[in-house]
Specification:
Order of helices and strands: EHEEHEEHEEEEEHEHHEEEHHEEEEHHH
Keywords: Monooxygenase, Oxidoreductase
Structural class: alpha/beta
Radius of gyration: 22 Å
Strand order of the largest sheet: 3-5-4-12-13-14-11-15-18
Pfam family, one: FAD_binding-like
InterPro entries: DHP_3-monooxygenase (IPR053212), DhpH_subs-bd (IPR054707), FAD-bd (IPR002938), FAD/NAD-bd_sf (IPR036188)
GO molecular function, one term: monooxygenase activity
Protein name: FAD-dependent monooxygenase
Number of strands: 18
């Protein structure tokens, strides 16, 4: 199926991947409509991609070694015991690549074909299907916040968990608040030298290829290194799951408090949590984070009853919001794009393309949401008494969480995807 016009609403990771997929699939025109001005590289949070998922996404032409990444091999589960680092509960294999969100986005953006049109600072107010006759030719209309309207053969909603496109596809679907939050922060890893007096040099106290999960009643803190903006200067990235602060925040409606927007009261709250629950080394590490690099992200999840409606299609977090415990968000978004491109190559019409995408990714999305909820209950909401856990018990507890699922770190593709040639950089 060649030709046609595609609008991608949202230009982040999912948006870039879908733009590349549509252009490589054969679209005559692809337009990315991103509400933000400028580049998105200032989003310095970390994310991880399982080694197996990376191999699949690289074979499909979306990832490659040229995008900065940091190797992780082990995850240490720890609990406070009076020592600087805490007691090792379990040494878990952890075959992941960690990424800096902004650098991954830049790599995907640079790898979109040169024919893709990126329009920054052009927010979308709404979308609707058209059915022909007086309503215009079959397709979909994008209504811009500036007041104009544009017609496309297909509109992809890659606009995140507060998606405008989802409101048209399934208006009844809204992300549900899980009842707890995560704090996030990052800073240059060179600052770890300030903690040498607690546990010795950082590479010995906390090896660069190790992630750490520090557990306490009602929460946990996950820490790992990610690439920095400057080559050879990695950053520390941490995610702190805990009950919400009693600060009168309205968290039931999808929201977040981005870096630089958290009040002194909120940043002091996470510092107090760290001091109260974490071993001294990890509490001091959290305290090294500048307030402008600290933000609050309430935990939501969403399983949409459908991903498509007419010529509208949902991708990434617009389609399914998965709790971060599964470490699958970026892989899920790019897998959506790979499935979309694969369906495009096999389809003879828009209807076949849309139906194939719904069949392939609907089931996968539901499974990921279910697993994320299970992991959230086991690790935060109904966590075990960590003081009683040892390597044997923890490994069995972990296996119980994954029983009957397709595994941690995202699911494998349901069908083999043929390797494709790398895209032409813009």
């Amino acid at each position: 199926m060649l030709g046609g016009t595609v609008a991608v609403v949202g230009g982040s990771i999912a948006g870039c991947a879908f733009a590349a997929a549509a252009a490589r699939g054969g679209a005559r025109r692809v337009v990315v409509l991103e509400r933000s001005y400028g580049e998105l590289t200032d989003r310095g949070v970390g994310l991880c991609v399982h080694d197996d998922r990376y191999d699949e996404l690289a074979a499909a032409g979306h990832l490659d070694e040229g995008i900065a990444w940091h190797r992780l091999t082990r995850r240490h589960w720890l609990v406070a015991d009076g020592s600087a680092l805490g007691r090792l509960v379990w040494d878990q294999p952890f075959p992941f690549r960690s990424y800096h969100w902004g650098l991954l986005w830049r790599g995907l953006r640079e790898r979109t074909p040169a024919t893709v049109e990126h329009r920054l600072g052009d927010p979308v107010a709404g979308v609707r299907n058209t059915s022909g006759a007086a309503d215009g030719p079959p397709g979909a209309v994008v209504r811009l916040l500036s007041g104009g309207e544009e017609h496309f053969d297909l509109v992809v909603g890659a606009d995140g968990y507060r998606s405008v496109v989802r409101a048209a596809v399934c208006p009844e679907a809204r992300p549900g608040y899980a009842g707890y939050v995560c704090w996030r922060g990052s800073f240059p890893a060179g600052r770890l030298a300030a903690l040498d007096h607690l546990a010795g040099p950082a590479d010995r106290a906390w090896p660069a290829e190790h992630a750490a999960t520090v557990c306490f009643p009602g929460g946990q803190c996950v820490l790992y290194r990610i690439p920095g903006q400057e080559p050879g200067r990695p950053m520390v990235n941490w995610v702190f799951y805990a009950p919400p602060p009693a600060a009168g925040l309205r968290l039931e409606d999808p929201t977040s408090i981005p870096p630089g927007a958290a009040t002194e009261e909120l940043t002091a709250h996470v510092a107090l949590l760290a001091e109260r629950h974490l071993p001294p080394y990890w509490a001091a590490l959290i305290a090294l984070t500048p307030s402008e690099r600290t933000f609050l992200q309430p935990i939501y999840d969403l399983d949409t009853p459908r991903r498509t409606s007419g010529r509208l299609l949902l991708a990434g977090d617009a389609a399914t919001v998965v709790r971060p415990h599964n470490t699958s968000g970026a892989a899920k978004a790019i897998q959506d794009a790979v499935a979309f491109e694969d369906a495009w190559r096999r389809a003879a019409s828009w209807e076949e393309l849309i139906a194939a995408y719904e069949r392939d990714r609907g089931e996968a999305g539901r499974a990921l949401v279910t697993l994320g909820r299970r992991l959230g209950r086991a690790q935060v909401e109904q966590a075990p008494d960590w003081t009683t856990m040892d390597p044997v018990r923890t490994a069995a507890w972990w296996d119980e969480q994954l029983a009957g699922t397709a595994g941690f770190g995202g699911h494998a593709f349901r069908s083999a995807v043929a390797p494709v040639a790398g895209p032409t950089a813009s």
